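Recall that a protein's primary structure is simply its ordered list of amino acids. Everything else, from secondary elements to tertiary packing, is in principle encoded there. The following example makes that idea concrete.
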Amino acid sequence: MAAVTMPPDALVSPQGSDEMDSLIVLHYNYTGKLILREKATDNIDLPTIAFLILCSFIVLENLMVLIAIWKNNRFHNRMYFFIGNLALCDLLAGIVYKVNILMSGKKTLRLSSTIWFIREGSMFVALGASTFSLLAIAIERHLTMIKMRPYDANKKYRVFLLIGTCWLISISLGALPILGWNCINNLADCSTILPLYSKKYVVFCISIFIAILVAIVILYTRIYILVKSSSRNVTNHNNSERSMALLRTVVIVVSVFIACWSPLFILFLIDVACRVKECSVLYKANWFIALAVINSAMNPIIYTLASKEMRRAFFRLVCGC
């Protein structure tokens, strides 16, 4: 393939001082995002401040979850290990998104292509790991319901196998573009949202995330059916109440997941379908990404604050008693 070249004046910023990466300029110019980056200022506006505060909140609440689990021996079991891993994923998502914001705007044009791939790839890893963790929790709950057995310390290998698989898949997915699955030297295949990413790679990732969503819905539906049938057999009022509580939790989990992620999935599909510079909504992707990141703020509330024991642990952690 022909080498990518740029005229010399494309390598200098409008102020004539900071050098720009020719590859970044080429791809951002092709997708119509170059002018947006050039018009950006170094001043932090209100939406950016709001996003940074959101990231700080995500880091703080997930750090509290990790500390609470670490300090309480009662939380040293399979399910809380998964919740701890989810909190770690979401904490990293908050950090990575904050770094991503601080490296955006005009700074994007001064990044090398390698740093650009690391910046975007780390977002895919962090958010992907969070999503895969949700699936791992659903799998663990389903397996526990099928076997109907209490916690067995000798089965910790299954926990770490699932957790390790989550991170392995997420890191592998995030690393694919920098390893070669990108649109360098093939501009027609470039995503508008992520100008160095191949549309085929975007379709591949979205297909995986949609499959995860479907799997989570199926698993939680089966869990509820199992609990419901079990409560009918026992005909116990407490079991019936527990079934309804589980149903409410399932509805909240799935609804929040769909509400946070579906808009971004749809936007990426629009990106794949649209010709370059034809869909203006693609230039508003930051709002859709922020909505997906909000899922990392909601997870601790859904999975931990609903627990009376975790609420007590949080209270002791905050008041230091």
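Residues 129 and 167 are 6 Å apart (CA to CA). The chain has eleven helices and no strands.
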